Amino acid sequence: MFRFFHRYRVVLSCAFFLLVSLGLAAVNRRAAYPIDPVGVVLLEVMHPLQVGVTAVSNYVGIAWDRYVALQSVREENEQLRKRVKELEQRDKYAKELVRANERLGKLLEFEQRLHGLGQTTIAASIVGRSPSAWVKTVVLDRGSTQGVSKGMAVLSPEGVVGQVVATTPSTARVLLVADINSAIDGLLSTSRTHGIVSGSRDGECTLKYVARLDEVIVGDTVLTTGQDGIFPRDQVIGIVERVGAQDGGMFQDVEVKLSVDLAKVEEVLVVAPGTVQAAE
After folding, report:
1. Tell me, what's the pLDDT at 163?
2. Of 24, 217, 232, 261, which has the fewest Cβ atoms less than 10 A away?
3. Could you tell me the residue ranges of all domains in the chain?
């Protein structure tokens, strides 16, 4: 029997598959839907693979969408950062304009007040400062071409700044009131006591040659006398910060705090020499 099947295995196999095919054909003709066992088997086998491919495809799609969205957010954030930086710069510029307008407004008012007293003035900006700690000078953007000359007083709305000591056609060098070589004739507003305001190496100012018996009050204002032919009368130099008696000396030790912050002043008025009446 076995030898029979082995001998005619090809013929029998063909006959078997032929019968199966004929049976499926007959069944498919009578059935409402065609029967495909091979397709069913393949579908069952491919189902996990299809599920996996679909899951991977969905994951990749979601990841790509997130990447695109992240790139969009990054670009938007970068644009927002640039916009914020631009607005901050504009805000700083606007604030600087406001401060500049305030300074120039005060300078214009001060200039008009001096003009009302018959004083000639030249507006100037500070464009340079001495790098040395021992020499306290600044450079103005106005020179002899604009009428600035050596000996002219330099003022700001807050008070005395210094005196022009050298000029070029387009610039002028100013010796600041805090320099050790500066000497300005001053007086106390309350007692009208006279003295010489001079600077020092450390930037402090003192009112020299005030007699020990003269009345000096802390907080009193130190003004220009107008008698030196350089500074207009009654311009503020500073206030008395400390008073002490010099050991065995004839004079008092009077420290003066300047009314002008020399490190921050930017715009000034250069005033021609001459004595004028007191500014209100």
Report:
1. 95
2. 261
3. 1-33, 117-271
